[in-house]
Amino acid sequence: MYFLQHFIKIIQFRSDTFKFLNFNGTTMKKLFLSIPVFFLMSEIVNAQKIRVTVSPSDASIYMNGERLSSGSADIQVRRNDCVTLEAFKPGFLHQEVKFCNKKGYAKPPKTYYFNLALDDSYSASVEGNDIANLDILIRTEEGRDELETWREINQIITSYFDIIEVADRESGYLRTSWHVKSFAQRTVRTRVILKLATTKPVSYKLKILCENAYGKGVSVKSDERFTPWDRVLKTHAGIIEEVQTRLK
Questions:
Q1: What is the pLDDT of residue 10?
Q2: Final residue in a domain of this structure, among 69, 96, 118
Q3: Strands of 66-185, DSSP E
């Protein structure tokens, strides 16, 4: 409390002092209001400008998680501040860089160029909007034996997947183990689930579960990191068509 009272006495100048300095209340108010503006202008003047470009030209540029534009952008790094720049386009590898306008850091460049490389997981897969993570009904011809159908589907599935995790002939349920494939910035895991749909006529539901996690070499057991992927690896993409063709 004593400190506060002492501080108030210091800033409460006598009116004759204002007259001597040729200041009035309005002048002082303008002066105090101009102080934040002065510091803001100082930050802007000392900001480092960077011209950012990216290839391909329709890739998106982000700064601190916020999308700026596609192809190119002009950004500023204020004094004593840092920014994180990212470039992204589906089918290409994501790139990220950080610049700081601070003492002890390298001075930000005047220009920066992102050259995105092709995403190897895309070249190894196909679009799976009509087959990935969907129950596909597998119909068979009228009068086809259920046991024979079960055996034939099993043979087809094991030609694509090495390990069958669960196979219950009585209930008509089969599930493979996860097949894991690691790429430069993505880990993909794939498995197949087969369920008996009807017995007369015999039909099954076949699902290709496709999931991906950002990062190379992610453990298949890290379930929290995997999310559904709308693509299917080429090594598994033909399984549904083969089953449908052979059971006609």
A1: 40
A2: 118
A3: 66-70, 72-77, 82-88, 95-100, 111-115, 125-127, 135-139, 164-168, 173-176, 179-182
In this prediction, residue 26 carries a pLDDT of 54
Say what the pLDDT of residue 199 is: 87
If the chain, 248 residues long, is cut into consecutive pieces of 10 residues, what is the mean pLDDT of each piece?
A: 42 42 50 46 71 97 96 95 96 97 94 97 94 94 88 95 94 96 98 94 95 97 97 96 90
**Tokens of residue 40, six digits:** 């803001």
| 41: containing domain | 11-45
Cα 219 to Cα 226: distance, rounded to the nearest angstrom: 10
Residue 2 placed within a domain: no
> Distance (Å, rounded) from C-alpha 161 to C-alpha 175?
10
Measured CA distances, 104 to 48, 83, 87, 108 (Å): 15, 15, 26, 12
Q: Are residues 20 and 69 in the same domain?
A: no
Contacts of 179 (CB under 8 A, 6+ apart): 161, 162, 189, 190, 191, 236
43-78: string of b/e by CB count within 10 Å (b at 16+)? eeeebbebebbbeeeebbbbbeeeebeeeebebebb
Q: Do 137 and 224 belong to one domain? A: yes
Residues 18 and 72 in one domain: no
What residues contact 199, with CB distance under 8 A and at least 6 apart? Answer: 146
Q: Does residue 3 lie in a domain region?
A: no
Its pTM stands at: 0.75
Cα distance between residue 218 and residue 213, in whole Å: 7
Token pair listed for 84: 């994180």
Last residue of a domain, one of 63, 91, 118: 118
